[in-house]
Amino acid sequence: MPGQKKKYDLILDALQNLLENRRLKTISVSEIAQTAGIGKGSIYYYFPSKDAILEALVERNYEKPLSTAKNLSSQTDIPPFTRMAMIFQACRNSSTEYLRSGEESEVGAAEKALLHQKYMNHLISEFKPVLAEIIRQGIDTGEIHFSKPEALAEIVLIVLTVKMDNTVVPSSREEIEETIAGLVSLVEKGTDNPPGSLNFLMT
User: Fold this and answer.
1) Please, where are the H alpha helices in the chain?
2) pLDDT of residue 109
3) Interatomic CA distance for residues 132 and 96, integer angstroms
4) What separation in angstroms does the CA of 73 have from each of 86, 135, 193, 202?
5) Which pLDDT value is given to residue 103?
6) For 30, phi and psi rounded to 5 degrees?
7) Quick one: pLDDT at residue 39?
8) pLDDT class for 193, splitting at 50, 70, 90?
């Protein structure tokens, strides 16, 4: 279905282009279709609403680091904490990519705030099951001692996303590093690992 994939991407490209100079609430589905060079009916074949197009746009923009992270959950030959470090790095890369795109974009403040909210929601919801599965595998092998893998995954991701994104609670580099160090220390204690054993998660 190459043609279908192309049309799907044309719709996302159209919304992204329109957002460079317009507020989302002023953009109609008809305008998205016109900008994409397709019929309005084609939009509804792929997306039920304008919000669904926006969700897909956020997902596409951060697809690469998320895809890398998802692939890690099945690589059981790699120790769980090494894979957690890779997840952390993928999270950091995704945040860096998001912030860079925000600097280059001319999207208005309201649109940036909306995109930012959807980005953070997408990042946490997509990474959480992957990270929880890695933690669960570590529990099964006796490398991690913790009874609630989903809760640990969510806590870690919320802290990482907020601090690495650095727009919700703006902090200096030193403050961010201190918070991440505190998170690593809590993970060490909570999973029965000696102090300093997981410092590599910060690199």
Assistant:
1) 2-19, 29-36, 40-46, 50-61, 63-72, 80-104, 109-141, 149-165, 173-190
2) 64
3) 23
4) 11, 9, 21, 20
5) 54
6) -60, -40
7) 92
8) confident
What are the structure tokens assigned to 129, written together? 């099951």
* Residue 129 burial class via C-beta count within 10 angstroms: exposed 0-12, middle 13-18, buried 19 and up: middle
User: What are the structure tokens assigned to 52, written together?
Assistant: 């669904």
Contact yes or no for 44/23 (Cβ under 8 A): no
Residue corresponding to tokens 């951060």: 62
CA dihedral 66, 186, 147, 117 (to 10 degrees): -40
List Cβ<8 Å contacts ≥24 apart for 162-166: 162/120, 164/91, 164/92, 164/95, 164/96, 165/95, 165/98, 165/99, 165/116, 165/120, 166/95, 166/99
Count Cβ atoms below 10 Å from residue 1 Cβ, excluding itself. Answer: 7
Number of Cβ within 10 Å of residue 190's Cβ equals 15
Average pLDDT, the chain: 80
Identify the residue whose tokens are 């950091």.
92
pLDDT in tens, 23-36: 788 899 999 999 99
pLDDT digits (tens, 9 = 90+) for 102-158: 555 555 666 667 777 777 888 788 888 888 998 999 899 888 888 999 999 999 888
Residue 8's contacts (CB-CB under 8 Å, 6 or more residues apart) are: 46, 56
